[in-house]
Inverse folding.
């Protein structure tokens, strides 16, 4: 057996102190508690004493300051560890100061020995031992007194605490302290950028104790020592334990995160002011609560009332989730932050709640007093350990200085987290646009790159630039050669070999007024007649104007919209970004099971300076997505001219399966539209030019079939 295992340890009952001592005070040892007045020596000794007295051990307190016992008890009543039922049963207070002053050290020692012999205490406290320094007539007398005291205490196997207002210099030079087994100093000083009460175990014989300083606080519960290194230890998961994946329940964000966030992970959410960090954190907790996941937010910036009001602006009933116990908000004002204390508070609140989601807003404010990057990194690791041990998911916000090319405020946060989500705000076309990027996420195949983010009426909306499923990496969907769909334009189907192939994309290009929109409306209405749900996206004219145009031609567009067979969706190209457009249209097609899609006109799609997107790849992505969802697509494009060799601008012809070019021709002195079928995929077609007539009933190809009758 080792020496340590042979020594009986006396627990202090002070949080973390026993861990720092290697299990407790060695039984039968003499320990000096040194520090200036008000540093907490008396409270610490009383807390140790009453903790052991509650477990049946006898404790003998010697007061050398001649302070009335009644006064001592009055102060003791302020602490929860005090139990008056133990007085004169397992706890006894004795005044030693009076006899020491009146008769000297030797009579005082006799009284002390007599009390120890009669009461048989397990713990003896002398407060203050420094009085004997002042009363001793010579260093030899003090040394003799000290040796005699230690011999008597050792004979009775008593654990002793000697309190004194010794300075650091006195602790190092006082010859008396060479006989003691342990020494603990309590001070107040600046530590890690904060004014702290500090505890330092200078020595402790027979114990594998910590030698660094540790902050502590005094409250009604007594002394609490903060030692994250010993109290918040990261527990390894069992070997072979499967990784549980957690959803954020924020749809766009989950699409970026792939299979989900591994349980126990911490994600740093970095961004400058106004990029949406707080909104993301609050929604993360709220959406999780709706799914039955408990969450807690530690706010060091915003008070709970403001956060609750903030949630109400988005229509989130956060108050109900708080009342149900699924969400907690803990607020610590910035001037009151104490990193060591609050780190323990975070640990305790998470454990008590059983939180599965943990948000901190923000770690840059929480750690702002710390000047040492190594200490900041350690505290970040301990925050991550709280999340890890709870098998939760943590979102930690960090404020990045505006315009700085960095990931976090302090420069150390990113080194200890499992994932990083960056929020940015960029000025584009005189507007500020938000973006999100999953910079890293361990053990997860996430989507890379920047993706559009918008904070709207429902909260955070994220629009991935491309789909997160397998279709994003597959070749374009093939057209269905066995089935053709009518265009709704008399005479056109015959020129196309019987109509448009199912899941094909047709591009209708032409100048203003050539009939592109008319053909697009007829294509959509032909689907309505076949009970095929349609979506008509207009980027030029509003729904009312489009309906009026259709009514003038005798086309029942308004009736189809009223019946819900066709949806007309107006989108202002200068107010929507490509990722938002992609996500919005995908959602509409999926929800309504749309089979025919019109975009009128793709030349007004949101591309150009600042959009980080050009027309061809955007149209290609839209077409591929629509076709993969089972839709047949018709696109219109405003061309620059009417000559047959002027194909659509932006090089869109490879994107389309069918390319129809409308141009103007003069016949009998009048300007009329003409149609040229430039290409058709999977069909043979004539490249001849055919006149187009537009009137009641819409457009028709002249000479290729009878004109339709107008519908009223």
């Amino acid at each position: 057996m080792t020496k340590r295992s042979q020594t009986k340890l006396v627990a202090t009952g002070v949080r973390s102190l026993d861990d720092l001592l290697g299990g407790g005070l060695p039984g039968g040892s003499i320990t000096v508690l040194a520090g200036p007045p008000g540093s907490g020596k008396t409270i610490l000794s009383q807390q140790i004493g009453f903790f052991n007295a509650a477990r049946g051990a006898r404790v003998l307190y010697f007061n050398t300051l001649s302070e009335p016992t009644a006064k001592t008890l009055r102060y003791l009543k302020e602490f929860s560890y005090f139990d008056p039922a133990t007085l004169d049963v397992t706890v006894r207070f004795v005044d030693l100061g009076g006899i020491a002053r009146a008769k000297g050290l030797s009579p005082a020692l006799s009284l002390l020995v007599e009390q120890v012999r009669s009461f048989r205490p397990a713990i003896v406290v002398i407060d203050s031992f420094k009085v004997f320094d002042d009363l001793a007539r010579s260093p030899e007398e003090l040394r003799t007194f000290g040796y005699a005291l230690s011999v008597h205490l050792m004979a009775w196997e008593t654990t002793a605490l000697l309190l004194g207002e010794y300075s650091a210099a006195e602790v190092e030079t006082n010859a008396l302290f060479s006989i003691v087994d342990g020494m603990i100093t309590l001070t107040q000083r600046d530590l890690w950028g904060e004014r702290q009460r500090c505890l330092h175990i200078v020595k402790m014989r027979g114990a594998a104790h910590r030698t660094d300083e540790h902050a502590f606080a005094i409250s009604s519960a007594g002394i609490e020592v903060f030692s994250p290194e010993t109290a918040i230890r990261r527990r390894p998961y069992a070997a072979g334990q499967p990784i549980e994946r957690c959803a954020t329940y924020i749809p766009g964000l989950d699409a970026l995160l792939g299979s989900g966030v591994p349980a126990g992970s911490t994600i740093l959410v970095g961004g400058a002011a106004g990029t949406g960090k707080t909104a993301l954190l609050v929604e993360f907790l709220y959406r999780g609560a709706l799914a039955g996941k408990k969450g807690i937010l530690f706010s060091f910036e915003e008070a709970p009332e403001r956060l609750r009001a903030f949630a109400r602006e988005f229509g989130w009933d956060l108050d109900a989730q708080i009342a149900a116990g699924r969400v907690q908000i803990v607020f610590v004002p910035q001037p009151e932050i104490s990193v060591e204390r609050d780190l323990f508070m975070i640990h305790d609140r998470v454990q008590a709640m059983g939180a599965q989601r943990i948000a901190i807003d923000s770690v840059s404010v929480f750690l702002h007093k710390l000047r040492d990057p190594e200490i900041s990194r350690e505290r970040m690791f301990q925050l991550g350990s709280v999340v890890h041990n709870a098998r939760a998911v943590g979102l930690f916000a960090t404020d990045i200085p505006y315009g700085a090319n960095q990931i976090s405020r302090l420069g150390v946060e990113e080194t200890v987290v499992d994932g990083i989500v960056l929020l940015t705000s960029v000025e584009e076309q005189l507007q500020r646009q938000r973006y999100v990027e999953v910079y890293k996420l361990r053990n997860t195949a996430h989507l890379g790159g920047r993706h559009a983010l918008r904070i709207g009426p429902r909260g955070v909306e994220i629009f991935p630039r491309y789909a997160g499923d397998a279709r994003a990496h597959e070749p374009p969907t093939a057209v269905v050669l066995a089935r053709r769909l009518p265009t709704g334009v008399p005479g056109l189907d015959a020129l196309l070999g019987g109509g448009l192939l199912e899941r094909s994309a047709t591009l209708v290009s032409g100048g203003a007024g050539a009939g592109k929109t008319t053909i697009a409306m007829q294509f959509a209405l032909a689907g309505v007649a076949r009970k095929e749900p349609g979506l008509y996206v207009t980027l030029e004219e509003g729904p009312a104007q489009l309906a009026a145009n259709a009514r003038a031609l005798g086309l029942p567009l308004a009736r189809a919209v009223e019946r819900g067979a066709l949806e007309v969706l107006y989108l202002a190209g200068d107010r929507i970004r490509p990722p938002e457009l992609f996500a919005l249209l995908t959602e509409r097609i999926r929800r309504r099971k749309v089979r025919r899609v019109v975009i009128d006109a793709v030349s007004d799609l949101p591309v150009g300076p600042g959009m980080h997107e050009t027309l061809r790849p955007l149209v290609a992505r839209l077409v591929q997505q629509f076709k993969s969802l089972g839709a047949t697509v018709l696109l219109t494009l405003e061309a620059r001219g009417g000559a047959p060799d002027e194909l659509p601008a932006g090089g869109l012809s490879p994107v389309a399966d069918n390319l129809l070019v409308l141009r103007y021709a003069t016949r009998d002195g009048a300007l009329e539209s003409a149609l040229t079928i430039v290409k058709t995929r999977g069909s043979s077609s004539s490249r001849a030019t055919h006149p187009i007539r537009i009137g009641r009933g819409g457009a028709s190809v002249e000479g290729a079939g009878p004109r339709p009758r107008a519908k009223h």
Observations:
- The longest helix spans residues 373-390.
- Residues 1-5, 468-472, 641-646, 705-712 have pLDDT under 50 and may be disordered.
